[in-house]
């Protein structure tokens, strides 16, 4: 037998539920005023419990010292005028209403630098009401906050940014804010390709301002994050180290190649480019100078000195015939002793030459100390012989002087190369040891 009326029980329940919510809504908001602070009695204040979930780190702008992140702000408080008995309304224990219908705390993000709202989109999200009078607000937002950046140990640096939440107009006697726990929520955090979040701590603070004797409580969340240095090591630090090593080749190149100075200048310009890359990344008004920037500066000074030394070596190598001979003490120190230390032993001719010079020096000294007793007049043969010998001797002496200066230039080149190979690695190890040990 076919029934006269086919009743849809699901539709009936939906209509009944909708009617129950309308009745509850009407009962709650008929005489409710959302402009009045919802105290349960005049002596109490409204306690707002705050929690925050860090969803994503979008970007840390070191130059502007701002942090852009995506967070979920969770607020919870008790409104005594919005409680009901669930049994009266068909067991209904919760109700969702628009934000403008109920009183909401004016929780403000004090570090926000966003134009307009400090927490954008706050008014688009609804409020969840519960039968015991509890009201909860869940606000997802992308915020931009000011963050003091310490770039001393860039790119091995650790940064800490704070988010302070509290009431803007109410003092602690009207609204008290509490942290839900000692830590924020990181369970929904999306991994970032540049930063690792080490911790998200929260604590309650109470501040007294000069304008007012009342306390103003707040909950401060501290985001502590560490930079992933691999990208900067591969793109800045490692190439800079290689460029520094190339500067040593300037001391190995022969002076006749004509490329010694140009190589050093090219290395100097390359270091300037790396220093510009780092300076564009870091804040110009940083209170501390980054160690890596100091390393680039010291490297540029070392390369600049090597360029000056290369010019000096070229100056010694290309001396003219009218140049005075190499001083005797320079021959003793550089052409004899230092050549032996640098594994470039002096030749027999060099040793004989130095001995001869010393003998001539001693003879001249002896003649100055001995009075002239007899002077033989020069004969015609002596005059002719003396006029021919200086011409050949002058040519030999000129070639010998030039060769001595070239030898001195080669010895100094090797000396500077060894010093550079000692100083450059020590500077690199010292600076990057300080970075890594941090």
Q: Unreliable stretches, pLDDT < 50, 5 or more residues?
A: 1-15, 372-376
Number of strands: 10
Helix content: 40-55%
Mean pLDDT: 81
Biggest sheet overview = 6 strands, mixed
Alpha plus pi helix count: 8
How do the strands line up in the largest sheet?
A: 3-5-6-2-1-8
Order of helices and strands: HEEEEEEEEEEHHHHHHH
Tell me the distance between the termini: 86 Å
Strand content range: 15-25%
Give an account of the 3D structure:
This protein has 438 residues and is an alpha+beta fold. It is 42% helix and 22% strand. It is built from 8 helices and 10 strands. It has helices at residues 9-29, 230-246, 249-252, 260-281, 291-317, 328-341, 348-369, 380-437, and strands at residues 46-61, 66-78, 94-97, 107-109, 127-130, 134-146, 158-167, 175-179, 195-208, 215-227. The strands form 2 sheets. The protein has a 6-stranded mixed beta sheet with strand order 3-5-6-2-1-8, with no helix packed on it. A hairpin with a 4-residue loop joins strand 1 and strand 2 (66-78). Helix 4 packs antiparallel against helix 5, helix 6 (328-341) runs antiparallel to helix 7 and helix 6 (328-341) crosses helix 8. The chain is rod-shaped. Residues 1-15 and 372-376 have low confidence and may be disordered.
